[in-house]
Specification:
By secondary structure, the chain is an alpha/beta fold. Helix content is about 35%, strand content about 10%. The chain is built from eight helices and four strands, in the order βααββααβαααα. A four-stranded parallel β-sheet has the order 2-1-3-4. The mean pLDDT is about 95.
């Protein structure tokens, strides 16, 4: 059973920050398995700029810990994220390596025409979207374990119990044990255009994805881009 409603001053408000197609719906679903953490659809936290922002966010759910997830869009590389007008925010920054993110972005943008998309699109996704978003997040929110918590998608799917336990501690949840499965959302559905709407998220368990050769081919030709190489190194991703 979810916890009873708390006053705004008693809430912990956390933002889940990332690029699109990084596994953000999975991460949010895992956190929401804790009874005191919210289960909300993707929410544009950047709109909460008024003096009553804390109360507006608190009204979204009954849980003590409110997690708002909304990845950067393509046109937001320089200004994402615009933080809501709330004191003592926590930030969870999710990263995913450039090649698997880029491969998923191709599918998201081009759908059935994905195989016809020119290869230079991969360079644009990597160099003009993925790299600047994460460079900005690295500069603004260094991993301190107090206000900012960084997690790599690759680590999450390999060791979900270990990493979700760390997340619960970071958020101050009453749940202490990590998990590798999660319940379906309550009151809304995962769907394309907001949260991930694919079959994998609907399995309700963490799955380690197979990386196809096509994704490795993307890595081979984008990792040499100077901006991409620098950000990958800062995030701890090894050369291919």
């Amino acid at each position: 059973m979810k916890s009873s409603k708390k006053e705004p001053s008693e809430r912990t408000i956390a933002l889940e920050l990332s690029v699109m197609r990084s596994g953000s719906t999975l991460l949010k679903a895992l956190m929401a398995a804790a009874p005191d953490i919210s289960s909300l659809p993707e929410t544009n936290f950047q709109k909460f700029q008024s003096a009553t922002a804390a109360s507006e966010i608190a009204s979204l759910c009954d849980e003590r810990i409110v997690v708002l997830k909304r990845p950067a869009w393509f046109n937001e590389t320089k200004r994402y994220p615009k933080l809501p007008n709330v004191s003592k925010l926590k930030r969870i920054i999710l990263t995913r390596d450039v090649h698997t993110t880029t491969a998923s972005l191709r599918k998201m943008v081009f759908r059935k025409a994905e195989l016809l998309a020119p290869k230079y699109i991969d360079n644009w996704f990597a160099n003009n979207y993925w790299a600047p978003v994460y460079a900005n997040l690295l500069d603004r929110f260094p991993d301190d374990g107090n206000s900012n918590f960084w997690i790599r998608y690759e680590d999450l799917v390999q060791k979900p119990i270990e990493w979700t336990a760390k997340l619960f501690r970071f958020l101050g949840s009453n749940r202490t044990e990590g998990i590798d499965s999660y319940p379906p959302p309550q009151g809304y559905n995962w769907k394309w255009g907001s949260d991930d709407g694919g079959d994998k998220i609907k399995s309700l368990t963490v799955q380690t994805p197979r990386i196809p050769q096509s994704s490795l081919a993307i890595l081979e030709h984008v990792q040499g881009l100077p901006r991409v190489a620098l950000v990958r190194a800062r995030l701890g991703y090894a050369k291919f």
